[in-house]
């Protein structure tokens, strides 16, 4: 996705959590939401930092990276239009332990942390939705952890591509190999090799920072079970969870 | 964890709990199946294991008296994404999922406390995920031993090499080698499934920083572990 859709084209309901709110709750939330542009590489939170806002992506993808004391990091989850970024806030964490970085440019909405917290504590449909999303996110994180440990880099790359594509309206991603290496927590050469394999087999095309998926069914055949585990849980837990790629 | 609740809310809740013995190796939850009970450990420890390809896995959480088993239920979900496996035998208090759901509805302090437990559990899972990727086995084994010791509140506990291998997502032979290294330096004594920590400070020096990070996370979020 080279160019992000314009502001005018989006509404808060492009985010599936917001879209699932009953009309009354939606109207109450609406004045608190501000549209925001999310450029590639922008950090929404730094690890250990205090969160000023919670973000609801509409056409962008945000990567949650966990950073260790020695500086090494790995991606633990991706969130797009199906969710929100900043759950630590309403789950009672003082600060966020992960770094949140825009992985695919686009737009979203943001709400002041204090305002969302008040709405969450009031209970009702919003609280229920956010807790269900939290559980889906936990599933993605734990499956990513076990996948990173046991599966080959090209399978991990397939998982990562499919999870990302499900959260985007388009069929291609703007991505450098450094970024992918950073996401998967592997060396750059490992990514080059894995991407080369997928390209040679006709699954993807990779040129100058653009990855285009050519054959999604083949990608789904190649990926480890981890993709299906995560997808199934999101479909089950989240409202109208028919993601773009479904 | 239950001790942190206000007395009045607590009394009602406690009356719905029954004591149950949980022997080493018992499986409390399987991924994707409905959880019939929630558990609050007294002196047992329970591993949360993410499963891949049916046989291999990775521990993404280690729960003792500071938290509960059944976090998804606290979020309104009736199935667990992970296997919950008793790692250190002991007892726990349990309650049916249905009753727990009802209790949760009109117990705001409990709800808030459990959301915080869920958050800490998630942060621990993240830390563990990255640790497993970034750090050498010996450091990870030391971290795991220290975490287990805290939750068991004892320098001695039972654990098989197979179990440790599953937890750390490595082969058994790797665990044997790493454990021998720690034993040679007199940090632990290990024979036939019985683990004894001889030198906690020594283990701390070997462990990666993740142990301290997880502890800090639990402390700042108000969860009490043995010193």
Structure write-up:
The complex is a heterodimer of chains A (246) and B (227). With 246 residues, chain A is an alpha+beta fold. Chain A has 2 domains: 7-130, Jelly Rolls; 152-223, Winged helix-like DNA-binding domain superfamily/Winged helix DNA-binding domain (Arc Repressor Mutant, subunit A). Chain A contains 10 helices and 10 strands. Chain A has helices spanning 16-19, 23-29, 88-91, 113-121, 124-150, 153-166, 177-184, 188-200, 216-222, 225-237, and strands spanning 34-38, 43-45, 53-57, 61-67, 73-79, 98-104, 106-112, 172-174, 204-207, 210-213. Chain A has a 4-stranded antiparallel beta sheet. In chain A, helix 5 (124-150) packs antiparallel against helix 10 (225-237) and helix 6 packs across helix 8. Chain A is globular. Chain B is α+β, with helices and mostly antiparallel strands and 227 residues long. In chain B, helix 5 crosses helix 7. Chain B starts with 6 loop residues before the first helix and ends in a 7-residue tail after the last helix. In chain B, the strands form 3 sheets. A 4-stranded antiparallel beta sheet of chain B has the order 2-6-4-5. Chain B is built from 9 helices and 10 strands. Classes of the chains: A alpha+beta (246), B alpha+beta (227).
Give the SSE map.
The complex is a heterodimer of chains A (246) and B (227).
Chain A lengths: L15 H4 L3 H7 L4 E5 L4 E3 L7 E5 L3 E7 L5 E7 L8 H4 L6 E7 L1 E7 H9 L2 H27 L2 H14 L5 E3 L2 H8 L3 H13 L3 E4 L2 E4 L2 H7 L2 H13 L9
Antiparallel strand pairs in A: 1-7, 2-6, 3-7, 4-5, 4-6, 8-10, 9-10
Helix pairs in contact in A: 5-10, 6-8, 6-9, 7-8
Chain B lengths: L6 H8 L3 E5 L4 E3 L7 E5 L3 E8 L3 E8 L7 H4 L8 E6 L1 E7 H9 L2 H27 L2 H16 L3 E3 L2 H8 L3 H13 L3 E4 L2 E4 L2 H7 L3 H11 L7
Antiparallel strand pairs in B: 1-7, 2-6, 3-7, 4-5, 4-6, 8-10, 9-10
Helix pairs in contact in B: 4-9, 5-7, 5-8, 6-7
